Each structure stands twice: as C-alpha cells, then as structure tokens.
Amino acid sequence: MLFDALAPSSALQLIGFSDVDAFRPIETMEDARSIPLDISNFAAARAVVALPACRIIMMRSFARILDTTYRMPGGMVILSMTDDLQVNLKGLDLDARYFVTLRGNDECHFVEPRANHHAMIILSPALRDRGWFDRGDDLRAHLANPPALLHTRQLLLDILRTASVQPLLFESTEVAAHLQEGLLLALDDLFRVDSTSDRSASVQCERSIKLVQRIDDYVAAYPTAQIYTADLASEFGVSIRTIGGAVSKVRGMSLHQYIRLKRLWATRTRLLKGGGATVATCARAQGFHHLGEFAAAYRATFHEAPSETLARGRHGSIVAG
Fold this sequence. Notes:
The protein is α+β, with helices and mostly antiparallel strands and 321 residues long. The chain has helices at residues 20-29, 146-165, 173-190, 203-221, 229-236, 240-251, 255-272, 279-284, 291-302, 306-314; strands at residues 13-17, 32-36, 44-51, 54-60, 64-80, 87-89, 92-94, 98-112, 117-123, 140-143. The protein has three domains: 13-197, Sandwich (Jelly Rolls), CATH 2.60.120; 202-252; 262-321, Orthogonal Bundle (Arc Repressor Mutant, subunit A), CATH 1.10.10. A hairpin with a 2-residue loop joins strand 3 (44-51) and strand 4. Helix 7 runs parallel beside helix 10 (306-314). The chain is globular and about 65 Å long. The chain starts with 12 loop residues before the first strand and ends in a 7-residue tail after the last helix.
C-alpha cells in the first residue's frame, strides 16, 4: 500500500492510528468532527512533507461522516491517490476522476463509505498566483485530465519517498525549491480542465446541508426526545420527503439511522469519561430508554458492550474527545 514504502524522517512526519478513540481527540483539535461508520476496520494514517511554499499531506482515511472547516488563504488541492475513491461531497458523488480545490474558507461535509487514500496540497498565500482559483470561498470539484492526474500522483509519491529515504536533500533550499517547482508545473497541467466539467454544490444541495445542520441542532437541543420525521417536517416547515431526502443526500443514510448513530457516539463519549456514570444513565441521557435494544445496537456498532467501554474509561486508558 501507499504507506508501506515510507518511514519517518527529519523531512517526513508519519503517524498512524489503529484506535478510533485515540484518534478522535486529534481530529477535534483540527476543527474536524466525524462519525466513524466501521470501527472494526479502523485505520488512519498521514504523511506530511513541507516544501518552501506548500505542504503535502497524504492521508489514509476511514469510513465516516465528516464535517470540517477549511481555512485556506493560499488555496488547497485535494486529489485521490488511488482509482477506487468513493466520497460524497456536499451531496455530490465523486470518484477518482475528480480533484477538489478551495481558496478561502468553507464548511465542508463529506461521507466516505469506505477508506480512501488522498493527498492534500496546501499552498502558502506567499505563493504567486498561477491563475488556478477564479474566486474565493468556493469549494469546487473538477474533472481532471487523466494523464495530468496520474503524473501529479506519481510526483507526490516520489517527493514523499525521497523525504523518507533522503531527508537531508530537503535541507537544501535549492533542492526543495526544485521539487516544489516540479509539483507546481504538474498542478498547472492538472488545472487545464474544461470549466463545463466543474461541479459545485447546487442550490438544492446547499438547502439540504442547511436542513441537516438544523436537524443536528435540534438533536443536540433535545437529546432525550423521541424524534420523528413528521415532527421535524412540521418544525422546519418542509415536507417529510424533503427531510428524508436531505439526510440521505448529505449523510448517506436514513434520518432514523443518522440520529441513532449520533446518539450512540454521544453515549460512547460519555462512557469513556468514566467517573461515577453508569451505562443506564449515559444511555438514557441520549434518549435510549429501552436498555436491551440500546445494548444490542451499541455492540453491533462498536463490537463491545457498553460496560466494557465504561470500564476502559474508568481505568483512564482513553482520553475522550
């Protein structure tokens, strides 16, 4: 796999996680909020290399729902490092043929039904504008020219491997600048796309995102309430079909599945804090009034009993995020 040929060095930061509970606090510090979808196969990793005016981050993600805030004054490019990408971005289904760009700020909403490998290139504001971004605060997906995409991928891998085995080269300003210029030229080719192939979140997608955010706020405000689609539709002045369609488009599941998953993770976070809490009080605080059904759903999601999670929290083995 992509990370197998890499080892940490003075030029390459390499970190991996096999424990979702250890990873989540790191994610929180980066202004990202995810709901993992498959913790039995959880594995996350990232490799980071700094060049004079940009930073390369290669990541192995995991199945999740992800909300994150990007602040990229110099711009950002995200591209898949493999051909099997599966991701939904703000209601748009994207595959490995696309790359994503942003300059400025954006609240991003992703659903990754499986683990993906992708690279993020974060550009410094000091980098001279090469005409890549036509407007700010605009997250956009572009259909890439296949040869340019393959060349950019290979160049990124070459830079990472060089940083792994020959880190001293990166101490030379001349060498680092040369590697960066090669990458910028590859991005020049990548950005030579037909503007008609660009995909931005449509007005309907934006409406769906805002509706899901209102649902999130409602669930947070009423953690113990039984929530029904008809009640939400009446509360928000939309149809039941609109509610269901928005959640399916933005979160990739039904409203019932989504609310239950959010509440299960909220319960897990509380259990991991340990203290004097009990499984029953933690469950009821998130609206799980039938403890037998709760325990079954919890075990199916996390592959352990809630009492086991609570015991780990009391022993202080996990710092909950």
